[in-house]
User: What shape does this take?
Amino acid sequence: MKKSKVTSILLFITFLLQAQTVVIEETVEKLTPKIAKPNKLAIGIIWDLTFYGGADQKGIAGTLANSVGLNVLINAKYKLNKHFLTIGYLGFNTENYGFKKTSDNDSFPNNYSNKLEKYSLGAISGGLGFRFTTNKKAFLEIGAFAKYNHTRDLYMEKNDANGNVNEVTIKDLNYINQFNYDAYARLGYKAISIVAYYRMNDMFSVSNIAPVVYEMPRLRLGISLGM
Assistant: This one.
C-alpha cells in the first residue's frame, strides 16, 4: 500500500513538471566590448620662424638680421594608415628680405646709396604635404605651397648730412611677382621641427625697372612649433 502511494506521488510530480509553460526564455551571450577607432582627421596650427638659408644672388647682398619671416598655418591632417598622413594647409605668411647693394649694382632697385633696403612680402598661402611618422612620434614631411602676395613693399633707410635717419616705404611694387611657389621639407619630433622652404619661381619679374634680372635668395630655413 505504501509503495503504491509513493508511486502515485512521483507520477503526479512528474506530470506537473511536464505541464509547466516557459514564460520567459533568454539566452545569455558573451558580450564583446566595442573598441573606438582612432580619429583619422585632426586639426592643428603651426608657427614657422624663418631666415635666409642660401647664398646671396645677382648683385644683392643679404643681411640676416633683416630677413625674418613668419608663417601661421592652420592644417587638417588625414591619417591614411599607422605611419602615413596627408596634410592640407591654409594661412598667411610674411617674408622680409633685407639687403645692401653690392658695388657692381648701382641701379636696382634704385640708384640711391641707402644704408639699408628691405623687401617685405605679405601673402595668403595654401599647401599640401605628405608626412611619414615613426612609432616614437618623429616625422618627415614634404610638400608644396602656393602664395598670393597681397603686400609687396620696399623699405629704404638712409642717413642725411646731419646724421638723421630718413625712412621711405614704397608700396605695391609691380615688378615683384604676385604669386610665389615653394617646395618644402619638415623634420621634427612631436610639436617641434626644423623646416626648409625653397622658392621655385623668380621673385622679380622682368620690367623696365629691372632690366637686369636680379634675384633674392630662394632658400629659407627655420624652426616650427605646433602640430
